[in-house]
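Practice problem 4.
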C-alpha cells in the first residue's frame, strides 16, 4: 500500500549548507513531502510556511520514504490516512505463531 505524507522537519544541513526556501529563506520547520514507495535519489518536494514549493536536490526522496516507514513502524497511531482516519485502524493485526517452548536439557 503506497502512502504519501507530509512532515515538518528540523533544520536540515547538507555539505555545510542549510536547506532553505529559495523564495523567502525560511530554514526551520520546512515541510517534506514523503512517498512510501519512492526510494530514489531524485530531489524531494519541500515547502515552507508560505507554501512556496520547490524540489530540493540535497534531500533525496529516499530520505522521506525512510522517515515515513519509521513513523509507521514506531508510532502508527500518529499517522493519518487521506480520509482522516488513523492509519492504525487499517493495519492488520499480527498473528502470533504458537511455538513450543523447549525445556532446557539438564
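Answer key:
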Amino acid at each position: 500500500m503506497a502512502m504519501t505524507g507530509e512532515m515538518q522537519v528540523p533544520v536540515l544541513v547538507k555539505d555545510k549548507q542549510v536547506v532553505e526556501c529559495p523564495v523567502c529563506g525560511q530554514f526551520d520547520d520546512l515541510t517534506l513531502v514523503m512517498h512510501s514507495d519512492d526510494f530514489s535519489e531524485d530531489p524531494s518536494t519541500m515547502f515552507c510556511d508560505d507554501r512556496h514549493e520547490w524540489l530540493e536536490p540535497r534531500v533525496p526522496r529516499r530520505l522521506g520514504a525512510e522517515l515515513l516507514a519509521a513513523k509507521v513502524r514506531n508510532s502508527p497511531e500518529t499517522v493519518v490516512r487521506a480520509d482522516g482516519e488513523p492509519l492504525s485502524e487499517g493495519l492488520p493485526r499480527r498473528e502470533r505463531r504458537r511455538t513450543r517452548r523447549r525445556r532446557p536439557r539438564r
